[in-house]
C-alpha cells in the first residue's frame, strides 16, 4: 500500500466535500472519492477538518453531515498567504513564485493585479 503525503488525504476529503456542494455524511464522501478507505478513517479526517476550522458538522439523525467552511480557491489563497508570511525574504519568495509561472498564468496574475489596484 502506498503512503499518502502529509495532508493529502485531508485535501482529498475536502475536494470531495467541495464537489458534493452540500452537507455530506462520511459514506457520501467515501463514495464521492471513489475509495475503499474505511468509514472510520474518513470520519476521523472529517473530525480533524472540523477541529482545524476547515469543515463544520451538523447532526443528521444518529450521524453527522459535514460541509467545507470555505471554497477551494479561498483555502488555496490562505495557504499561499501563510507560506509568504513565513518567508524571511518576502520579495525573493514572490520573485521565485513569479518566475515559476508559465506565461499564461503570469498574464492572469497581471490582469488580476490590475483589477485590484
TrEMBL record:
* Assigned keywords, A-Z: DNA-binding, Transcription, Transcription regulation
Q: Could you tell me which Pfam families the record lists for this protein?
A: Penicillinase_R
Q: Does the keyword Transcription apply?
A: yes
Q: Name one GO molecular function term.
A: DNA binding
Please list the GO biological process terms of this entry.
negative regulation of DNA-templated transcription
The family line of this record is: Belongs to the BlaI transcriptional regulatory family.
What's this protein's name?
Answer: Putative BlaI family transcriptional regulator
